[in-house]
Amino acid sequence: xxxxxxxxxxxxxxxxxxxxxxxxxxxxxxxxxxxxxxxxxxxxxxxxxxxxxxxxxxxxxxxxxxxxxxxxxxxxxxxxxxxxxxxxxxxxxxxxxxxxxxxxxxxxxxxxxxxxxxxxxxxxxxxxxxxxxxxxxxxxxxxxxxxxxxxxxxxxxxxxxxxxxxxxxxxxxxxxxxxxxxxxxxxxxxxxxxxxxxxxxxxxxxxxxxxxxxxxxxxxxxxxxxxxxxxxxxxxxxxxxxxxxxxxxxxxxxxxxxxxxxxxxxxxxxxxxxxxxxxxxxxxxxxxxxxxxxxxxxxxxxxxxxxxxxxxxxxxxxxxxxxxxxxxxxxxxxxxxxxxxxxxxxxxxxxxxxxxxxxxxxxxxx
Length: 366
Prior knowledge:
The protein has 366 residues and is α/β, with parallel strands linked by helices. It folds into two domains: 5-38 and 273-365, Alpha-Beta Complex (Aspartate Aminotransferase, domain 1), CATH 3.90.1150.10; 40-269, Type I PLP-dependent aspartate aminotransferase-like (Major domain) (Aspartate Aminotransferase, domain 2). Helix content is 43%, strand content 14%. The strands form three sheets. Strands 2-8-7-6-5-3-4 form a seven-stranded mixed β-sheet, sandwiched between helices.
């Protein structure tokens, strides 16, 4: 058989490979998934939807109740004004990013992506026919704004991700404003991936769309509400973008799962205390892991958000840690500038973190 050159030109996710190959007794710090169960009131909303027979197709763009709830959430939490017609409910943020790359990127277009950055950005740009170009981070693991400005000329799309996967960096307001404004001056559309917006520690999340009309907001229930498997996300964009993205969405997906959409309504409109509880626990786990690394003499910027640490292990130590049964992701999965790092996820129990640190300590000693 003959296969598409675009698909042959990308690699399967290294994160998934590690996750699926983890053996018995391994401590898994690889996959970025909350270890919390979905809050009870959200699950109950799905059960009610099942009992009421709400199991058929929904409108392509999503049920009206959910789009209205998302508009209110964006107004209340992000200071953004959108109408339901400017939203598409998607199968997670992953589908939203895919739709946007397909709509905005032409063959050969330069797409600026964080480097280090989440594995999907460059891959989705490539699938769309674009040429991903990495925006480097500075020594604090934040976006190097000056380097980004130099790369904007001739680009079509720029991806921002704050809080960041894999670094945990939260971009300051002045950096986000500068990047959006510079992009607008050069006719570049900004895709702002904000899935970790509620997981910040001592820093404030700022939505990029506050600073320009050239920004498309992507978000999901996955991390905030421990709903990774429910697959509910959204994009919020000008109507002309929504019209084009809908063409791809309706043919590849039709609609997000009906019962998951009703659960998401409960997530956005119901009790928000579980979110605060998860955030407090993640911060405690972050502190536990970071203190462990400092005791081992390994120093790096403390993460300000999400639930990852991007640790300067180097390749040899990374391999040694993996051989000790600690599943971590080698930095090269996240870009050319990340080869000497490894990503560790602390969305796991404190007991697992303590055991992982013990094994990492053995690897360091060896």
